[in-house]
Amino acid sequence: MTVRLLWACVSLAAMGALVGCGVHTTPVTEADYHHVGSTAQGSMFSGGNGLFGGLFGANKSASGDQGVGAGGAIGVNAYLWRGALDTLSFMPLQSADPFGGVIITDWYSPPDSPEERFKATAYILGRELRADALRVTIFRQVLQNGQWVDQPVSPVTVGDIENKVLERARQLRIQTASS
């Protein structure tokens, strides 16, 4: 019972922090970015043998969507989590926090545009496979006079990335249901 109470307190604090993250009235820049979460290493977060696997019981939402981890109950949708990891896999991973549902990439420069770089943060905000349970933030910088300068990112680009994550999450759910 004590572990459940502790988990409830931690979950409420994390939800409060995530809700606070969404109260921006100005565009988010790299200067606003804060490192959160832990660096994912190997199978530390996965399955029953991982560091946190099996600590909490099985997790399913009312719609039957699973939480992250095979044996661990995490407050985010497993399909959205995996879909975000798969979609952003072309960028180097800086940190991943399956408990808080936050994935942060490191800077990535496309091979055909070395004077431009991007960084992404994906927030999985819920347990159900729904569009409003996902938020992606993209940062863009351009090299000018030897300095990286923040540049705006088209909302269309962010929408395209979110749609690709949702599409991949739906594919994973279909694959799981058919097997």
Descriptive report:
The longest helix has 24 residues, at 155-178. Strand 4 and strand 5 form a beta hairpin. The protein has a five-stranded antiparallel β-sheet with strand order 1-2-3-4-5, with helices on one face. The chain has one domain (27-178). Helices cover 30% and strands 19% of the residues. It is elongated, with a radius of gyration of 17 Å. The protein has 179 residues and is of the alpha+beta class. The chain has helices spanning 2-21, 78-87, 155-178; strands spanning 93-97, 102-105, 116-124, 134-144, 147-151.
Overall number of strands: 5
Give a short account of the largest sheet.
5 strands, antiparallel
The percentage of residues in β strands lies in 15-25%
Mean pLDDT: 73
Order of strands, widest sheet: 1-2-3-4-5
The backbone outline, from C-alpha atoms, is: elongated
Number of helices: 3
What is the structural class?
Answer: alpha+beta
Q: What is the helix fraction of residues, given as a range?
A: 25-40%
Spell out the helices and strands N to C. HHEEEEEH
Rg calc: 17 Å
Question: How many individual domains?
Answer: 1
End-to-end C-alpha gap: 35 Å
- Give unreliable regions as ranges: 14-64
